[in-house]
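User: Hey, my collaborator sent me this sequence without any context and asked if I could get a structure. I don't really work with proteins. Can you help?
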Amino acid sequence: MAISGISSYGLNSLYGYQSSINSLRLTQALSRNPKLNQYQSSRSSSASSITQKAARNADLSFVKEYSSKMTNLMNAANELKSSNKNGAMSDLSMASSNTDVASVSGKLLVKNDKEYTLDVAQIAQAQMNVSEGVKAADYAGSAMDFTVGDGKNSVNVQVSAVKANGGSKTNAQMLKEAAEQINKSKVGVTASVVEKDGVASLQLEGKETGAGKEFTVSGELGAAAGAENVKTEAVNAKYSVTEGGHTTEYEAATNNVSIGYYGVTAQLKKEGQTTLSAGVDSERVASAVGDLVNAYNSSLKYLNDNYDRGSAVERQLKNFLTGIGSEQSLKQLGISVNKDGTLDYSKSTFEKNMAKNPSMTKELISGMGGIADRLFNKASSAMNVSSSSLINGRSSANSSASGSYPGSVKNPETNPYSVLGMYSRGGAYNMSNYYAVGMMMNYLI
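Assistant: No problem. I've predicted the 3D structure and written it out in structure-token form, which is a compact way to encode the shape of the chain:
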């Protein structure tokens, strides 16, 4: 039988009497409520193991870590967003279509998607002189007394054909001693002894490339006869750059040249043609995608481990598990989804697909609705929830510090005190509202 509200109309004494009776009856009724008994048992156990201060600190630490996880994910996603001028997708670097002709380094000073054709007519070279070959093991026929000069510095090379003990030196020994003297000097020439099939020769090469970097050799050369003859002349590099149908020719003393004012440096290697084009730094992008996957996995695991702390955590967990991208799109990025919802990333697969289809890969990463935008928005949404909604679940802080009971948020209809509080003008524990008390008894009995 339902119990209607008990009225105190008329007498103050009756009001107090009825209040006491209703309090007693409510206490008896609540004592038979299994949910409340279960809570009181757990509350007693919890009170003995954790203080209210410790519980509050635990909630505070959780909120801070939650914020840190989401911030890290936003930063990782922002690195790949096209709107980020300093991000990986805006970091344009130059690539050479034929690295045998020339390799390139550096980045464009301004965004420019044009291609440039580089024609190398001649690479810069240093002067090289090579002596006639002599049998390395044969004894030297005469001493050496010659000079090597580069116009600024010179060295006089003197090598005796006789050892200190009176024995004769071989041709190879003579050449090696001559090379040592040259290399120890300040003259701009490097000397080396080349031996092949028992034949040795002295090779002299200028330290700098380009016209005007010549050197001379003169004197009694002995085993190094012929070293005064030039084998390779010192010449400048000659190349041209074509942009939009306009060709400009250049000449440089070195093979390390600047391509106009574009902020790009090319290393010329041999005669030929190559195309220079601007594109994203594939290595940086590949690493950034890996960082994004790691940040997402870390955030997802944290949400999963703390899903029961609050209603907002549970909502964000569900949000994270959906709408990342189609299986085909993720596959193009070298990403697959594990059974637990985390992502697995293959950098080698990404780099392979990036090289094969760079435009599509870029679109899947930083285009509208790309993975960078999707995960950035998920993290941003998670950051916009209130702190209270993150810890309004079954945490120890809520039960011990605030006095709330299990089910107060997720299932308010199961909490008798919440029902009473909906009707009581003085709070959930004020027994002066007899209609509320009667309704409570109907709920419990």
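In plain terms: Residues 1-19, 395-445 have pLDDT under 50 and may be disordered. You can pass these tokens on to your collaborator as they are.
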